[in-house]
Structures
1.
Amino acid sequence: MLNVLVVEDEQDLCALLAETLADEGYAVACAKDGAEGLAAAAATPFDVVLADLRLPKIDGLTLFRRLRVESPKTDVIVMTGDAAVKEAVALLKEGAFDYLTKPINFEELRVQLQRLMAFRSLRRDVAAVRTELRQPPSSRDRLVGHSPGMLKLIKRIETMAQSDAAVLITGESGTGKELVARSLHESSGRRARRFVAVNCAAFPDTLIEAELFGHERGAFTGAVGRREGRFKAADGGTLFLDEVAELSPAAQAKLLRVLQEGTIEPLGSNDTMKVDVRIISATHRNLRARVAAGLFREDLYYRINTLDIAIPPLRSRGGDLAILVQHFIKRFSSAPRATRGITWRAWNALAAYPFPGNVRELMHTIEHAVLLAAGGEIGLEHLPGAVRGETGALSVAPPMVPLKSALKEFERAYLVRTLGEFDDRKSKAADSLGISRKNLWEKLKMHGICVTPDVESEADAKSDDPTVT
């Protein structure tokens, strides 16, 4: 739980806040003015300081700015009256976590602190993996993520790399199919030879065969000289056929023959050349459906699909988003003006966005944000409009609702997402949220969230039973 310092000159309110937070399980200390609060923060590392903007000796604004310098790991929530809301909002842009208006809504405060715990946990996770992201020497090291789907993918790559069998990689656009193909090559016995990639959708039907198999001078209009194809260039190594589903029927037939016989015949030549190439193919399309529709040869499908790898979309890689965000911030930050981090509002927008373009879209999003942040923290205003939910004429903005209703809706959505990440294991979900299992059950009941029966051990269940000693 959080270690909280309340800085408030109204002693009754300060005592009420301290008592309420202590009942929630937080460790709480109080200070009656800004100078006393600053001294307390210097003596004890607090997780969060809950400070009034109007304080004697040192005002809340000065206190916040001093804490940013002297206790950078301490988050600040400011309290203010209606007349000073603009000042509180300005502090958010400087890095304050959030603000509360007086009179204090204690349910809103609870939600803010729970959200803060989740955000601080995220920052700890990011810090723990930074050493893994420093200077990735290979494609395998650029497969960033610790989610079950990514760990399964990495294990599958390690197993398949030892074979020379053909591999078909499937996945949505932007999931990193070429990166997986390169990882297979760099982990294989062919890593000393070339990895050659060709995008089958980038060449018209009249040129794709020449690109793959080579051609002699005069083989077609524009063939002013002899050229070796990609198969010959990849001899002894790996040939990656990206967007293989886009091959024309003629190219499919010739590719099938090459895979069957292990030889190629350049356009305009009657000579055959033996090649030793491992084929790795990739597509975002459903090849089985294309076979059924007569758009892709069934015999070729089985030739390129001896082994298969399916890459999970980013939206199903729970927990990997934070690691990837940090990875791309580090990648795109320049040394003199390195980006300091990301605000929780920006993080919430990233976490809520489905990323239909997957990791590629996330990479461009963070590059965009790092450039606009110009060495500061990435804020919500630095993210592209689509990520912020600004879809223009494509959709209608949601209606405004009372803050209490919005907070309740956010808490419900956050609980559902957390349970999903832990497969409805409520003890683990409660630990992640920083609350007791009993408190979690109460919240689930309050929000009307139905969950599947526990898959946790009997010991876990008994640990929450007050009658068990």
Note: The domain at 3-129 is CATH 3.40.50.2300 (Rossmann fold).
2.
Amino acid sequence: MTPWEIKGTELVNCNCAYGCPCQFNALPTHGNCIGLGAFEIKSGHHGDVRLDGLCSIGVFKWPGPIHEGRGEGLVIIDARADDAQRQALLRILSGEDTEPGKTVWNVFASTMERVHDPLFETIELSIDVDARRGRVTAGKLVDMTAEPIRNPVTGDEHRARIDLPDGFEYSIAEMGSGSSRVAGPISFKLEASYAQLAHLHLCQNGIVR
């Protein structure tokens, strides 16, 4: 197993209601799961390969709850990555070189029935975790935004967080309202649904605490 470690930020948007039942081991809001997640590596490596500054997007679709499997997945890799960096990112994002069940990518990989060939695209990404705001684009494939959840009466920004002491993705995530347009092998639209923004610190053994 090649050791790796990354620090960065993520923005995730799925079709569930705010809060996302998956975070509480409950069934998805609409019975199925579709969503995407983007992250930027502030600093990181896979073995001797540096990954600083690179971005990636995962697009996913399940006909039912994630744990029931039959998922479909696609990874979009930063076009700036060289061959060694592309292979390193693909090994991390496919759950390889990871202790079973210890990262979100390893868990998702175990539920996949179909994985499309990876795509390489220019990714533009801006994530402000504390402000609960973000924007991610990848050519004509992805356009994702997040903003704070609003109080339906006053319109004021509402702040909520999820704390998962034993999670396999993040320790604390800020909740937002996300909207996405996704084209390509997996396509869908999301409007004002669950979004999470979080700082990530992961390695082959899971969250670095």
Note: Residues 83-93 form the longest helix (11 residues).
3.
Amino acid sequence: MISRDSVLAWLTEYRRVLGENKEYLTALDSAIGDADHGINMDRGFGAVMAKLPAVATSDIGTILKTVGMTLVSTVGGAGGPLYGTFFMRAGAALANKTELTAQDLLTALEAGLDGVQQRGKATTGEKTMVDALTPARDAMQAALQNGNDVGEALRAATAAAEAGMKATIPMLATKGRASYLGERSIGHQDPGATSSYLLLKTMTEILGA
């Protein structure tokens, strides 16, 4: 089982990784967006860290919903509403839980992805974070169906997210700010898919150890 403290440790590690990759994510966004994805995500999770102590003894659903609401209110651009929706939907799916099974993690990932797709009206192949999250969800589902443990399932999800992230490079963007560039969006890795991969990577390192 995955404890509430482990979930808090994962969020804390993701905030550290975002800080470490702030300039990288912003550089990716400068090519096809508003050049602010890394800055915005780093600021948003800085605000999250300030809010977490007040909910540190709450259930995991409340913690994740707090993350989502904080991101919506502090992150500009598309990242705030999309990541905010991801965490709020994941939190709603985990309401009243103080520890999680591997299946709970999959349920949260599915709920978060559904929220992102509804909010962003995006599907795979459009050069967005959905291109990393969808294969991650599918890989995790397949791993659990095959009887793999949570660590193996998370590693499969992370590998699929990484492949999905890299697959955005040759794509033509048809959603979001990048779509305004048309053919010029081809050849650039999507920043949202990249931050989504980092989300899964840190989840694997902390929750799948």
Note: Residues 43 and 75 are 7 Å apart (CA to CA).
